[in-house]
Amino acid sequence: MDNLPKDPAILVSSVNMLLRDDEFDSLESLCFAFDREPDELKDLLLSEGFVWSEKQKQFRPIGYDE
Questions:
Q1: pLDDT for the residue 22
Q2: HSE-CB for 54 with a 13 A CA cutoff
Q3: How many Cβ atoms sit within 10 Å of the Cβ of residue 19?
Q4: Are 5 and 11 in contact (CB under 8 A)?
């Protein structure tokens, strides 16, 4: 994968997959590899209904853990 996907649903799936499959050990290292800022990615996905869970090391739907 050369670039992160633009579509939010595919983006969250791709980021979670890359982190789950140990391609990257943190969101920061993933963002560095794709020349993105972690806060930029978090804000974009938050606007699409996903929140970053540091405990789970993945993006989750807002309210999923409530």
A1: 85
A2: 2
A3: 19
A4: yes
What does the CA dihedral 18, 36, 39, 20 come to, rounded to 10 degrees? 0
Residue type (1 letter), 15: V
Structure confidence by residue, pLDDT tens digits, 22-62? 889 999 999 999 999 999 999 999 999 999 999 999 999 99
Which pLDDT belongs to residue 1? 65
The full set of domain ranges for the chain reads 8-60
Contact predicate 31/41, CB 8 Å: yes
Q: Judge contact between 49 and 38, C-beta under 8 A.
A: no
Enumerate the β-bridge partners of residue 53: 58
Of 24, 56, 55, 60, nearest in space to 42 by CA: 60
